[in-house]
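Quick one: C-alpha cells for this chain, please?
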Amino acid sequence: MLHWDDLESANAALNAFTDFDRDARLGDGPLSNLTIGIKANIAVEGLPWTGGLKAYKDRIAGKDAEAVAKLRAAGAAIIGTLNMEEAALGAKTDNPFFGATHNPHKISYTPGGSSGGSGAAVAAGLCDAALGTDTMGSVRIPAAYCGIYGLKPTAGAISQDGLEIVDSSLDSIGPLARSLEDLETVSRVLMNLADPQVIENIALLENLGGVDCEPAVLEGYERAREAVGAKQKFTLPHPLTRIRFAGFILSSLGLSQELADVLKNNPDGLSDHLKFLLTFGTERSAADLAEDQKTLAETTDAIRAVVEQHGAILLPTAPQVAFSHDDKAPANQADFTCLANIAGLPAISIPAGWSSDGLPVGMQLIGAAGNELGLFALARELDEKLSAYRVPEVFLETYRGER
C-alpha cells in the first residue's frame, strides 16, 4: 500500500503532482516494484487530462493512453498526473492555472519544462519513474535540471495514442528515472527495442556551435568528453539558434492547429502568453516557413550523417543549470536538445556534475534511430565514470509499505 498522506504532504512543497489516484496499486510484472507518475498531457483513465490548460481542467480521461496501459499491465502503480507547462510549450513549468513546480534541489527554482512535474517528482522520490513528453527537449531538460536520467526515444517508437500533440513529427513520450537501470526497464515495456549496436566512436560539435554555456556546464562537458575519449568534431549547416527557432516555429504552428477549436470557442481557456506564442507560427510568411523547413531538413540530414559515421554525439543537455522562477527563461535553453527531435533520433540525458551552488548539470548522448539499447550501454559506461547522481535536498525517503 502507499502512504498517501506522506506523499501528498511531500508534494505540497514542490507542486509536482496535480492529481493523485488513491486507488493505485502495484501489480505483477516487470514493473511490479515501481510507482509511476504521468505528465498531464497523457491520458490516465479516471484522472483529469488537462494538458496544462484551463480549457481542459474538467476533462476526465475515459481510458489510458497506450503507453500508460503498457505500464499498468507490466505491474506499475500509476499514482497520478503531473504538472507541466501550459500545452507543453514552455521552459519553466510555471503554469498560469496550476501553479509553479519547484526544483527539489532548490525551492523557488525551475525544474525545467515542459515536463517539470515529471522531473521534480522523480528527483524528489515522489515516484520511482515518470512519463514526460519531449518536443524540443522537454524530457531531457527537466532530467538535467533535476539531476536524474531521461530518455527521448526514436521518433515513433512509443505510441502517441492518448497524447495531446504539439507537433507529431517532433513529439515523443519519454520516461524519466533516478537510475539508468529503472529507465531502461521502463523503456523496454514501452517500446520494442532492437538488439544493441555497439557504439565505438563519439562525435563532438565544433566549439559547441558557439552556444554560450555556464562554467559548470563546460566543466561537466569536459569531464564527459575525457571519460569517453571523444575527439572527432563536426559542424552544422546552420547556427543552433536558427535551427532551434525553426523547430519552435514548427511547434507553434502545429499547436495552433491542435488548439484551433479552443482558440475559436473558448479563448479564455488559454493564457495570453500561450496565445502570443501561437502567433509565431500562424503569422509566419509562406516564404519564411519554406526556409524553416529547409533548415530543418538540412539539419536532419547533417545530424543523421554524423551519427551514421561516428555512432553517437555528446553534447550538454542544456547550456545552463536551473534558475529562479523569478528569472526569464534563457532563449538558448533548447539549442542542444532540439537536434534529436528534429532528426528523429534517440537521446539520453544523465547527471554530469554540479554548479558551485549545488545545482545539477546534465549531459546527453544522441544515437542512431532504433539503437536505444546501444545508447543505454554507452550511457552506463559514462555514468559509471562521472558518478554524478545525488539525492536532492527535498526527498521523500519512503511512502510505500507492503503491497
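The two ends are 5 Å apart (CA to CA).
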